[in-house]
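Sequence in, structure out. Go.
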Amino acid sequence: MDIDVRGPRFGAVVTTVVLAVVLVTGSAWLLAWQTLAFALGAAGGVGRSPYGWLFRRAVRPRIGPPTAFEAPEPPRFAQAVGLLFAGVGLVGFTLGPAWLGLAATGAALAAAFLNAAFGYCLGCEGYLLLRRLTVRAG
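Output:
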């Protein structure tokens, strides 16, 4: 079933704020929270992430029914990519080296910001590219 396109974009806005705070404060705990949010979104889809829940409960009732939909697989893949980068960032912040935490968190922040500000989901585009390549190869 297709999903409301506004949900993943809302999640990207929240993610952008969380990751920016992580970079400013160096908080491994906050990055651990974001890593968990990515893990839940990757495992169950963006609707199962905490930000998806918040969107459904608090935002969507106030902005009306959706007018545009998208397949759930690309955003779910994007959550998995975010999980990878946040996990690497968490390793860097907790075990070192610190530059690894900063770089991985910065990369995740850049991708989240692209989606939040411009509606361009880098992970979703990666999913579509991977699908095209595997269809051609198969």
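Check: The mean pLDDT is 96. The two ends are 26 Å apart (CA to CA).
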